[in-house]
Design brief:
The protein is mostly helical. Helices cover about 60% and strands about 5% of the residues. The chain is built from 11 helices and 2 strands, in the order ααααααββααααα.
Length: about 260
Amino acid sequence: MAVNIPFLFAAPLRISVAPVVLLALLAACGTAPPVSGINDPHERTNRFVHGLNKGLDRALVRPGSEVYGALVPEPVRQGVSNVADTLDLPGAIANDILQGNVPEAGSNFARMAVNVVFGFGGLLDVATDAGIPRAKTDFGETLHVWGFAEGPYVERPFFGPSTRRDAVGSLVDLALNPVGQVAKGKDATAILVISILSKLGDRKRYSSTVDSILYDSADSYAQARLLYLQNRRFELGQTNGDNAGDGDVFIDPYEDPYAQ
């Protein structure tokens, strides 16, 4: 489970993707080897950032999600989430291509086309009803496929749990998504608003789960770290070894409220 709490959004980066392709050519062949245990050499700094994130969630994100949930009907919130999902698909397709995953690239393209054409620009999730699921991916997974190591655990300000590899990947994803490259002015602002509202909807939908991690755990930092590493490694198919250090096979004890 990727517990990214809370969040802020940066404007899409206007950079060329040519260095990304060069990295793909230079990267080692094959995926990164399975990892186990917890690599957290910067725990003191990470815990400080976690405290800031937790305070921001308590002061702004959780109250904002409650207001959003109270003022906006659930069907409208779902429509906003559907549009946000559709806007993310071009970036997912780009990552599928960089990973050489043609079937998932085709599935995501078909999902995008169906929802845009028959779902009123993505407002309705027609593709799921038609049996076309979303194949989730990101540039952190692309780096994994290229053979880059996970690196140490990090807690990012505003964005929450990650690893060094995934933190780099999230920055590249901002530049890699074609939507972010072409959106200008009011369109870019609209996309930003949709993304924020979608995340507020997620926070509202999974409030009991997120609250249990942040406010009911004896050590919310350790709990969030463990769950992130377990589920991220599970998503990447790394099921060997003792994974995050608790000796269990990878599990997904909760829904994923903030999928990357």
